């Protein structure tokens, strides 16, 4: 079993929550992705935080290009490992 994870970076919490909801519909994701607030270095203001959606893909069935296109719909991107 591999430990493949995809990290999707979103500009705000609303976008991240919408991505989490849409992942199941679009990709048939079984496991609930983790939602993580990522404050930018030196920033205390919650408005300056990015939100991460961490998605496990142990079977390696998710195509990174498809995830790039998907998260781009919310002005986000997929982080390369």
Write a structural description.
The chain has 2 helices and 4 strands; from the N terminus they run E-H-E-E-H-E. Strands 2-3-1-4 form a 4-stranded antiparallel sheet, covered by helices on one side. It is α+β, with helices and mostly antiparallel strands. It has helices at residues 13-27, 64-72; strands spanning 5-10, 34-39, 49-56, 77-79. It is globular and about 35 Å long. The protein starts with a strand and ends with a strand. The longest helix is centred in the first third of the chain and has 15 residues, at 13-27.
Principal-axis shape equals globular
Query: Which H/E pattern describes the elements?
Result: EHEEHE
Share of residues in helices: 25-40%
Overall pLDDT metric: 86
Largest sheet, described in full?
Answer: 4 strands, antiparallel
> By helix and strand content, what is the structural category?
alpha+beta
Key structural traits:
about 80 residues; alpha+beta; 4-stranded antiparallel sheet; about 30% helix
In short:
The chain has helices spanning 13-27, 64-72; strands at residues 5-10, 34-39, 49-56, 77-79. The protein has 81 residues and is an alpha+beta fold.
